[in-house]
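Sorry to interrupt, but I need a hand with the structure work. Please put the record directly below this note.
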Amino acid sequence: MKIAIIGTGVYGLAMARSLSQNKTNDIIMWAENQAVIDEVIKMRKNYPKLNNLDIPETIKFTTDYREALEGRELVFILTAAQYVGNVAEAMRPFIDKKMHFIIGSKGIEQGTCRFVHEVFLNHINTRHIAVISGPSFAIDIANLEPIGLAVGTKNKETLKVLLKAYKGTNIKLRESNDLVGIETCGAIKNVIAVAAGILEGLGYSESTRAFLITESLHDIKELIRGLNGNKLTILSFAGVGDLLLTATSTKSRNYTYGVLLGQRKLEEAKRYIETTTVEGYYTLKSIYALLRKRQIKMPVIDLIYNIVMKDTDPTKLAEFLMKKK
């Protein structure tokens, strides 16, 4: 299968490595500049950002959208969420109506409060679209460990194409038609991971972090319902699976950022978000605005927002959990 991956970050490279297990897949990756490609090619036999794993020689690279997209059947969007709109617009002249698109970027667009698949559809008119999410650190995908992901699509042909692409790989897909629910889970789990990190930074134990995660699951379920999704999606790979992983591991950049906030290392935390992509920080702004726009109450998000954006005392997070009804 001819596959294009838009985004040559660590997650994109890990996904390419996984998909390359299926020897029928022909993979090309688009990067925003030649320097990114040069770095990967120079160190592809021992790539340091993926713990010195190799990047298979069969994977090709380009900075040209035409070259990346021409003749491709399946296109992965794996850029940071805030760039999806610009990328989709740049892709548009080279889109074929038969192409299938899968969105792996997670977040909510600043200002519009649109989910990522809605941002994409605002630029590219297609019914062949899916979203994918689940507990999956890039290094674990690249290591070819068994991984389970939720895929949301209303198009049976797109699902068929995806299952074919992943055949024989380390990734298992579990299907759903709830794009909104899967995207909600994929976005908000990064915010909850920041809060879990804050609790660790304050010195609280795994038990307290489990308290936060359990309460958050209930709230996310109600949020999904409020956004007209299926509340049972909270039980999927995208829901409880991804939340457990992201909110309990130091591999998570969101969690690491939260730890710095809890330790009151504010200057270090500021430098961290300036040099690292912390999706939870940007998503927090968007989901805070979305809740107000839709008039949905989610007090835990209000408190996290105040701690992160307004420097409210982080110890109030533990107090909130005890008082929450």
Strands lie at 2-6, 26-30, 60-62, 74-77, 100-103, 129-133, 147-152, 171-176. The first helix runs from residue 10 to 19. The longest strand covers residues 147-152.
